[in-house]
Structure formats: structure tokens, C-alpha cells
Design goal:
By secondary structure, the protein is of the alpha/beta class. It has four helices and seven strands. It has helices at residues 7-27, 32-48, 53-71, 74-95; strands at residues 130-131, 142-148, 151-154, 164-180, 185-199, 202-215, 225-241. Strands 1, 2, 3, 4, 5, 6 and 7 form a seven-stranded mixed sheet that branches. A hairpin with a 2-residue loop joins strand 5 and strand 6. The protein starts with 6 loop residues before the first helix and ends with a strand. The relative contact order is 0.11.
């Protein structure tokens, strides 16, 4: 259904949703947004201690609270209503037998060369831990976003390209660990609202809306090298040699 609507339609829906969210924050002092944040924190705590009975109880109770708090947001209710309207419009056009014409992209359709779709190392996973395998694997640049969970990337089990490998992670809550072989040069740009950072023996025990930038001595001139770009709302990052 969504493929048949223009990108501008979805952009306007998202813009209106953001405006409603700002309206709710300003005029209702956060409204259900505060409940969403508190519930999300307790869901994370329960998920981390899920093996224990109290962890299971906290997880499921606050997961239900999180869902209902999200559904109570004006922006979310608007988005749900917008999706229903789009569905009705799409269904109505189908019933009328209206023919859909696929849009044609501007520009030449002459042979653009060979391109291959590759399987990424990590998918976008909202909840849960992710880690590279303990066995050898082929390297692909990492570019993901997620909500809860730990991310572990071990570069000792792969062969980095004779160029710049890229790791980009945008995360809400959890820990990011990157293990780097000694012969690899590294650049690290980390942003955090709350958390800690341990980068090659440099310890930052209390980050509060900070941004850190480190790079090894020969990063600009030597290969292989890896560029690590991470942003996290609440959590820790550890980058160390292995």
C-alpha cells in the first residue's frame, strides 16, 4: 500500500506528528511522554535482570505500561489515524479499479554498471543484544540504530579492507563494546547524554551531554583503519585492543 503514495505525503504526516509531540510537551508538560520514558527505563532494567523472577515481573508490567503510554501520545494517535486514512484511500481506489502508474525516475536508464546487494553484519534490531560471531567473518561496514541491548563488535575475527572501515551506531540504552587488533588505526567520535566511556585506557566516568573525539597517532597515514561513530542516550562505550 505505502509504495503507491509519494514520499512527500509521508513527510507531511511525520512533520505534523512532530508538531503534535512538541505541542504536548509545551502545553501538557510532557503528558504521556514522561510515562513513556519512565516505563522504557524500567523495561530495560527488567530485561537486563530477566533471568530473575522480579526482573520478569518488572519487564512485563512496564512493557504493558510503555505500550499504553505510547498509544496515549497525541502524535502516535495521529499517526495511527493517518495510516487508517491511507488504507481506506488505497482500498477505495482498488475497489474502483483505478490503475496505478508506477512513477518514472528522472535521468538516464543507460547501463549504470554492475551492483550487488550484500547482507549487512547487523540488522536494525530494537530490542536485544547483537554481537559479531566468534569465528571468522567477512567485513561489511556497520550502520545501525537500536533501542535496548548491548552491541559487541570483535574486529579480530575479520580482515579489514585496505581502506577505512566504518562503524556507525545510534543507540538509546545499553553498552557498546568494540575490540580492535593492535595493528589497526582507530578514530572514535562518541556522543552521550548519560553514561561512561573507556577508550584505550582513557576513562570518562561521568558523561553528561558530552561528545568525545579520539584517534590513534598514525590514523591519517596508515592502513588498515576503522572509523567509529557512536551516539547513545544512556549507556557506556568501551573500545580496547585485543
Amino acid at each position: 500500500m505505502f509504495k503507491r503514495f509519494q514520499t512527500d505525503t509521508f513527510n507531511w504526516i511525520l512533520i505534523i506528528g512532530v508538531i503534535l509531540l512538541i505541542f504536548e510537551i509545551i502545553f501538557f508538560y510532557g503528558g504521556s511522554l514522561i510515562n513513556v520514558i519512565i516505563s522504557a527505563v524500567f523495561v530495560f532494567i527488567g530485561w537486563k535482570k530477566f533471568r530473575k523472577l522480579w526482573g520478569k515481573i518488572v519487564f512485563w508490567v512496564f512493557l504493558v505500561s510503555f505500550v499504553f503510554s505510547v498509544l496515549n501520545l497525541l502524535a502516535v494517535r495521529f499517526l495511527i489515524a493517518a495510516v487508517l486514512v491511507l488504507f481506506i484511500i488505497d482500498y477505495s481506489k482498488k475497489k474502483k479499479g483505478e490503475e496505478y502508474i508506477s512513477p518514472t525516475l528522472s535521468g538516464s536508464e543507460i547501463n549504470q554498471g554492475t551492483i550487488m546487494q550484500m547482507e549487512p553484519l547487523f540488522d536494525h534490531k530494537w530490542f536485544g543484544d547483537q554481537a559479531t560471531t566468534d569465528t571468522a567473518y567477512g567485513w561489511r561496514d556497520i550502520n545501525i540504530h537500536s533501542v535496548f541491548g548491548d552491541k559487541v563488535i570483535d574486529l579480530s575475527n575479520t580482515v579489514l579492507p585496505n581502506d577505512t572501515a566504518v562503524i556507525s551506531i545510534r543507540h538509546i540504552m545499553g553498552k557498546i563494546e568494540v575490540f580492535v587488533p593492535y595493528e589497526v588505526e582507530v578514530s572514535i567520535h562518541h556522543s552521550s547524554v548519560f553514561g561512561r566511556a573507556h577508550i584505550f585506557g582513557k576513562h570518562h566516568w561521568k558523561l553528561l551531554n558530552n561528545s568525545l573525539l579520539y584517534q590513534t597517532e598514525n590514523y591519517d597515514s596508515a592502513y588498515p583503519r576503522v572509523k567509529i561513530i557512536t551516539s547513545i542516550f544512556s549507556g557506556d562505550i568501551e573500545v580496547k585492543r585485543i
